[in-house]
Amino acid sequence: MEKRRRIGAYGIARDDSDQVLLVSGSASAWHLPGGGIDFGEDPRHTVVREFVEETGYEVALGDLRVVSADFVEFPRLGALQHHDRIVFDVTVTGGVLTPEEGERAAWVRPEDVELVPFAAKILLGRDLGPEINPRTRPFEDGHQPANRVRRFGAYGLITDDAGRILLSQIAPDYPGAGRWHLPGGGTDFGEQPAEALVREVFEETGQSAQVVRLLDVSHFHNPAAMGPEKEPLDWFSVRAIFAGRVSSPTEARVTEVAGGSTAQSRWFAPGEVSALPLTDLTKHALGLG
């Protein structure tokens, strides 16, 4: 099967009787309002936009609920899609319930209807396996120019029991070269974000980390990034930020193959970090911690 990836953002809206606002095709299973993130779009804006398009409601975002990944099989396209999903709690603030043409939208009890596997796992804790989708044409975000990069990554604000912070320095010829960055990187096909973070922390620092909690989701768009091959890239990244801990720290060292994006890694006392050249993501995460 052809392998594809997609990044989507979704919202959970509940009414006073604890019903959930769900949408579906005319005869298909129900799912959460939301959809694919447009290139360069803030995931939070995606949720607001998709709610208006799919339900007619205006919404305000609440807490970030979960970041996860799952598979969707498209037998008629011969494709298997890894779908990274970001889910927020939302509150309806205005509008009138108006489903998209040919679609349904309704307040329902999740346990009373057929749900797509992703929604069943989020709302009911049921693992139904991969979704089987009969779609006959590709999603628009499956095709993009060669110089356009769309990536989903997982990064960690990693500390030890002494309060030290683990950081990685970006290697020469990579965007942000010389700056100190949160350990982490792009998720592999079929990999959950938290799993990717543990792997990336070991590759970049040699540390065995435990993921503690999800902190935030951010996005980054640089239409004129310069890659290691000295070719310009239109770079868009959606990034899950976790808090993590290393219970038995050792001297940090890069274990990934030579020529990677990490020049070196180190533990820093909190007072040392402010003097470092930091990436914007690192500064943002330090404010969350």
Key traits:
Nucleoside Triphosphate Pyrophosphohydrolase; single chain; seven-stranded mixed sheet; 5 helices; five-stranded mixed sheet; alpha+beta; 2 domains
Protein architecture, described:
It contains five helices and 14 strands. The protein is an alpha+beta fold and 289 residues long. Strands 8, 9, 10, 11, 12, 13 and 14 form a seven-stranded mixed β-sheet that branches. It is globular, with a radius of gyration of 20 Å. The termini are far apart.
Could you provide a short overview of the structure?
With 289 residues, this protein is of the alpha+beta class. The protein contains five helices and 14 strands.
Topology, please?
Layout: E1 2-13, E2 20-25, E3 34-36, H1 43-55, E4 57-74, E5 79-95, E6 103-108, H2 117-124, E7 131-132, E8 148-159, E9 165-170, E10 180-181, E11 184-186, H3 193-205, E12 210-226, E13 232-245, E14 262-268, H4 270-273, H5 280-288
Parallel strand pairs: 1-5, 4-7, 8-13
Antiparallel strand pairs: 1-3, 2-6, 4-5, 8-9, 8-11, 9-10, 9-14, 12-13
